[in-house]
Recover the amino acids of this structure.
DNA sequence: GTGAAAGCGCTAACAA
DNA sequence: TTGTTAGCGCTTTCAC
């Protein structure tokens, strides 16, 4: 059971032991040896501290040191399975190193992202792991200029030299499209989010290159991230399917796949048996869907580990010391039934 | 773009305007009128503060006031869709009221939960929304005794009089089982987590009552929450299915359903077409699964809204003032194909 | 109406 | 080797 920590403070401990707060502070912060504090003094302090289960007030510590031991993890939407999974891993890694994580969702919206950063700036957040919304390059830049550790992921700003962890979007998309073509599909559609953000631009480029290589037509549906509600999204997909006589579709992200599958189930069940389907981002349910859905799977664990590695390194050394780390990870192609010509 | 807030402080503002920090503080905290500060003074301060986009240091404020404007949201596993969705809603509601949310996963493990609470206790966390692990009743109690706002959800401790928001587990489970029976199923299995926590106990009781009412046998599989890995879980389910000639299954929680469906797809695909399947917790993918999976759906939005309402109320008034709020919400039964006798 | 100053709990430079 | 003390930025009592 948690001790009812009766608001112990350094001062009280010092009084109790008849020594100064400095001594206690030094001992507690592992500077005892360095400051040549006697072994018996050290032992005495440690024993008492343990006895009362003393926990220093982190706020005071933060106010004094300017460090909060808190990392912000900002994604588009924390309820998205993909982000939530990464968040979970980040959380574990961070806790092991004594950091707490504040999660937040920016809805891919600049204003929301800016608000959030602004709020956090005045809480001495130690570091930021961010999926940037399209227009906050300058805000990110100013964070970096202030020497605050920032690591982007999922996407980055080509014109901003900073740390990031991403995947080989173009290549993954190219390979995926090629896989569809090799499986005999000829009229391959691409359903994506209407944005200039590079992860999506690259996924589209990979698709286009693969399609053009084989002199096939490209059929692209762009849906606004903030399309009015789920139903509007689905309606667009439905119309797209009706208007184009496609034999396969590549979805650029998991939530579009989900909408797409819903549309297929609701309006074109007969297509489920033959339409080629390939999706970015794997999901546990894709393997038990009928047909099972082939996926371009992002290495969540690896992404999280890399993000934290970079972050922890930045946390140690002032950001400007070293070259920004640009990490590009490989995706894994998971062929299932939905991409086999049936 | 975010202003490069050059570390403005109350003191600097006061110096700049040739007034005292007190005055600035009063104006900024809306106590100007009350303290009878002249309108022109107020205007002057507000104008300057706006000009420099001053943001008070929250840490200092917290240290002084003992309030952090941070709420902790602790669940079993934040990567679980169900919890992540609720987290997302909580996040939004909290931000609107000026609160930040720290999410964390306790893995239904007392030690982890205790560690987390301990860490947070010394950060002046304003309130806790918690899914309690089985053995932390006393820790929760001591939090409450210290007057810290706590709201439990998903489950609670019958012997601890505190705020909670839960659903009518027994009734939902009873109704669900009855639905299966009415649809002609007779050998209904129940797959659940091996725990004494009341949400699960109640779900089991609902099942048992419904089954006994009709003189049917009960077949229960209990799986440890921390069963060694996903594969062990699946193996147990597989053996359970092999050992019992069931015609329907009620899963007590979404991740068991997921494992169960995987087992069915991998080992008993022929059962998918006829086995009655009903699950606690709806998931977007259940409606596009083949067959679509009937679900006992928890009202996520309502849960989140109620949690925040109670929390905000506690945040306003000292916890001990009012009677603990015990809120029980209704679930929604969503009949789909999997529970119809086919 | 406004200001001075104590103090929240901690760190660390400086003194002894 | 240990202690004294200033100060992080803010709120708030009390004095003027």
């Amino acid at each position: 059971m948690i001790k009812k920590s009766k608001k112990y403070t350094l001062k009280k401990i010092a009084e109790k032991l008849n020594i100064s707060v400095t001594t206690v502070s030094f001992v507690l912060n592992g500077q005892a040896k360095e400051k040549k504090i006697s072994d018996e003094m050290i032992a005495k302090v440690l024993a008492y501290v343990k006895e009362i289960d003393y926990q220093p007030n982190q706020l005071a510590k933060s106010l004094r040191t300017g460090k909060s031991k808190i990392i912000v993890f900002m994604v588009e939407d924390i309820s998205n399975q993909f982000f939530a999974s990464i968040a979970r891993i980040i959380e574990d890694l961070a806790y092991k190193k004594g950091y707490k994580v504040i999660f937040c969702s920016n809805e891919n919206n600049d204003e929301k992202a800016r608000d959030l950063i602004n709020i956090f700036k005045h809480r001495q957040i130690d570091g930021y792991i961010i999926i940037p919304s399209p227009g906050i390059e300058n805000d990110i830049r100013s964070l970096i200029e202030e020497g605050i550790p920032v690591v982007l992921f999922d996407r980055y700003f080509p014109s901003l030299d900073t740390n990031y962890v991403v995947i080989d979007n173009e290549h993954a998309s190219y390979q995926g499209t090629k896989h569809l073509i090799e499986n005999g599909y000829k009229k391959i559609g691409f359903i994506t989010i209407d944005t200039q953000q590079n992860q999506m631009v690259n996924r589209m480029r990979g698709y286009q290159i693969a399609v053009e290589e084989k002199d096939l037509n490209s059929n692209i549906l762009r849906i606004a991230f903030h399309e009015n509600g789920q139903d509007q999204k689905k309606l667009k997909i439905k119309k797209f399917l009706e208007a184009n006589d496609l034999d396969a579709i590549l979805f650029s992200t998991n939530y579009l796949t989900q909408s797409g599958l819903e549309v297929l189930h609701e309006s074109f069940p007969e297509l489920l048996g033959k339409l080629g389907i390939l999706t970015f981002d794997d999901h546990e349910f894709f393997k038990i869907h009928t047909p099972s859905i082939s996926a371009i799977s992002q290495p969540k664990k690896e992404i999280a580990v890399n993000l934290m590695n970079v972050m922890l390194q930045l946390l140690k050394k002032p950001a400007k010391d070293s070259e920004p780390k640009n990490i590009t990870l490989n995706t894994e192609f998971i062929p299932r039934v939905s991409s086999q010509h049936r």
Observations:
- The CA atoms of residues 183 and 340 of chain B lie 6 Å apart.
- Residues 9-11, 21-22, 25-26, 29, 31, 56-57, 59-65 of chain B lie near DNA strand D (CB under 10 Å from a C1').
